[in-house]
Amino acid sequence: MKKKVIFIVIILLIVGCVVGAILYFNNIKNNKKEAYEDSYNYPEKEIFTKNQEDVDAGIEALMNSDEYNILIEVDKIKSVGKLLDLYEENKVIKNLHYDDNGKMFTFQYSGGEIDGALGGVMLKEL
């Protein structure tokens, strides 16, 4: 009987340690993400709000913003991706794809006179 109780206590301790470790490391990861997000003023939502139907104007506004121009390449890609995600979520564009080799987003316009036309944003310097 004592062996069963000791075994159950050991199992519970192991499970508790594993769950605690998972929660601890997940919390560290979330805190790092929040700290990074707090350090950068994301203009994507504001730009999308002002240019809800005009993808080209929204991209141009983002890429000409001071916040965007101070970013490193990887963060510029994320920023453009977030803005295009907003357009896709709101059905202004569809079939959004990013090609890492060419540093290019491609998509199709969805609606209006240019419904189905291909569009893209190249982030690579020529």
Give the topology, please.
Blueprint: H1 2-38, H2 44-50, H3 55-63, H4 66-69, H5 73-89, E1 93-99, E2 104-109, E3 118-122
Helix pairs in contact: 2-3, 2-5, 3-5
Task: Describe it.
The longest helix has 37 residues. This protein is an alpha+beta fold. It has 5 helices and 3 strands; from the N terminus they run αααααβββ. About 6% of the residues have low confidence. A 3-stranded antiparallel beta sheet has the order 1-2-3, covered by helices on one side.
Could you list some keywords that capture this structure?
126 residues; alpha+beta; three-stranded antiparallel beta sheet; 59% helix
Low-confidence spans:
32-39
Rg computed from alpha carbons, rounded to a whole number of angstroms: 23 Å
Helix fraction, binned, reads 55-70%
Beta-strand content bin? 5-15%
Distance between the termini: 75 Å
Largest sheet: 3 strands, antiparallel
- For the residues shown, what is the average pLDDT? 81
Quick overview:
With 126 residues, this protein is α+β, with helices and mostly antiparallel strands. The protein contains five helices and three strands. Helix content is 59%, strand content 14%.
